[in-house]
Structure formats: C-alpha cells, structure tokens
Amino acid sequence: MSISTGNGWVQLRQQTRSLEAQKKKQKPNPRSKSSSKRQAITTPPLTQPLRPTRPQIDAANIFSLFNQRETLISQLTRLLDSDSLLTASAVKQNNLSRHRETLLDHRHTLTRLRSSVSESRQRANLLSNVRSDIDAYRSSNPESAEADYMLDERGRIDRSHGVADSVLSQAYAVNEQFGVQREMLGNVQRRIVGAAGKVPGINGLIGRIGAKKRRDGIILGGFIALCMLVFLYFT
Description:
Shape: elongated
Oligomer: single chain
C-alpha cells in the first residue's frame, strides 16, 4: 500500500466522520415543528412572497450532507478497490460497511420524520378546515348556533345531575350498610343475653356486679360531696 493511498483513505474517512458528527448535532427543533403546524393552519396573504420555512431549510441542509457523505463513501469504495492491500484489510472493510449502514439508517430516520411531520400537517389542516366550516355554519345560522349552545348547556346540566345521582346512590348504599350492621349488632346482643339467661347463676352474678357498681358510685358521690362541704366551710 502506498503512502499517498493511505493518506487519502485517512483524509476521506475523517471527512466522512466529520459529516456524520454534523448530522448528529442537527437535532429536531420543537419550535420549527410548531411553526410548521401554524403555517399549515394559517395561509399567508397573496401579496407576500413565499419563503422557505425553517423545516424546509433544515431538510435541504440534511440532504446536502447526505449527498456529500454518499460522494465520500463512493470515493472510499473506489480507493479501497484500487489497492489490493486496502482490499485485504478487514478493518477498513468494516469501517466502510459501517459508514454505509450509518448513512442508510440516517436516510430511513429522515424519511420517517418527514412522513410523521406530513401526517401532523395534514391532521392540522383537516382540523383547521373542520373548525372553519363549523364557524362559517354558525355565523350563517345564528339560530342553529343558539340551539347548539342550549344543547351544550343541557348536556352539562345532565352531567351534573348524573354526578348528583351517583353521590346520592352511594349515600343510600352507605346508609343501607349501616342498617345491616346495626341489625347484626342487635342479633349479637340478643344472642349474648339469651346465652347469659341459659347459664345458671349468671343473672344473679350480673345483678350483684350491678349492685356493687351502684354502691361504689353512691360511696364515691358521698365522699366528693363531703370534700366539697369541707372546702366551702374553710373558704
């Protein structure tokens, strides 16, 4: 392999990698997408000359980069085929294949993005046309516009009534659950009382416990009253 051929390969590959790096730096601009949508919705006056938009300029620059890269890859291919030592180098063959695959992948990505932008633009145009038709119909038929407004208000009222009915149904369900739980507690209490009545001596024990509680309450009340009388006497 001659020195000039090796230098030519290195220079061409550096140029190719530089162009690939420029493609990676050119990321989609959200403002350009929004501006393209606004331009798709609003048409400029006829007196103003049509100028290329920012997305069109970006696409032209990217296509120019693709063409330059394709030219460099063709030169690398011819240079690789012209020298037997370069052809026998597996590393350079892999580098050339990678450059081709990268270019093909970038072209597919650009095609996909352009189709997505085109679909968004068509959708925006369709929505704009539908809105303009609706506005034109309403402006030409004020009675129909008023009827549509009344229908919209009726729909809102119906939705609010539906929400109120849902809340009331939930409240009724909660109240019903409370009634069921109250009935269950009453049944448990009756069973406990019935079981206590069947056990011999349990009623007398419960009565003695109640009497003891009443006696303790009377004693405690008398003691508190006595303390209050003594306090009032000394004050």
